[in-house]
Amino acid sequence: MDVLTDVLNTLELKGWLSARRELAPPWRYQFVASQDMIFHLLGSFGGGYLTLKGDPTPLRIEDGAVLLFPFGHAHSIGDKLTSPLTQVLHVDYDSQKHYQSFPETSEEIERAVLCGAFHLGHPGAFTLLHSLPNVIHIPVEQGRTVPGFTEIVQLIAREAAAPRLGTEVMLRRFTELLFIHIIRVWVEQQAGASRGWLAALRDPAISKALGLIHQSAERGWKVEELAAAVGLSRAVFSARFTRLVGEPPIKYLTRWRMHKATRLLKNNVKVEMIAELLGYESEVAFHKAFKREVGMPPAKYRKFGETFSTT
């Protein structure tokens, strides 16, 4: 099983393009902290600087760069560090708000920045997200080396520049694809990672074990069974899994089961059926496990709709 695909599917990702802002010098936009991920697609503006709140070192950014702020950190971008403030902006996902288009010349469109947000229905469900940096910067040259990346950026820019029937839907779908592309590029940037989720996915044995867990979460896996399935001794497998993933195999299995359970509860599946689907011997056993891991009974979780976090 492609574990990355499986966990990306569980995020319930929603993309949204907010607006286009012209980058006519001198300019500097300040973005306040957001509860969602923020992204920018930069046009041809002659280069500038990104300043992340709490980081004293500005980052040089060039034409065509893509920026993602996984935790919605406050930041500012401008043509120069000393440029006067143009505007303070709030970028939060809003499913009811429409994309704001402006009548502009082709030159103005090319030197603009497109701003948007990604909202995750289950932000705590994917341990990879916890390891993301405060900002992911993808220079245009790097984007060109990844099949499809430049094309999706161009599709978004083209659709945003000339809204037509169905533009709102097109932009939402394109931005969701953009998120996956950005994660792909970032994963490839971390080729030398020695530990964490990325290293786990690159380790043949641990990656296979993760695939087994995701494919058959309802199975009552034992550590020795997973170890045997990937050709390692119990001790070696347990130590390597814990070091790379950050928690023991059975703990990971339980947390993944609970995440699946929260989604099923959200979709109004009966508790008895959830217990059966996740491999618990009885509804009572599932109820105890859920309360122990999540901190509340399934019925209370369903009623209040709290987002389960695996942090």
From TrEMBL:
Keywords of this entry: DNA-binding, Transcription, Transcription regulation
Domain HTH araC/xylS-type, first and last residues per copy: 207-304
Protein's name in the database: AraC family transcriptional regulator
InterPro entries cross-referenced by the UniProt entry: AraC_lig, AraC_XylS_family_regulators, Homeodomain-like_sf, HTH_AraC, HTH_AraC-typ_CS
Domain of life: Bacteria
SMART domains: HTH_ARAC (SM00342)
Molecular function as annotated in GO: DNA-binding transcription factor activity; sequence-specific DNA binding
Coiled-coil features, chain-numbered ranges: none
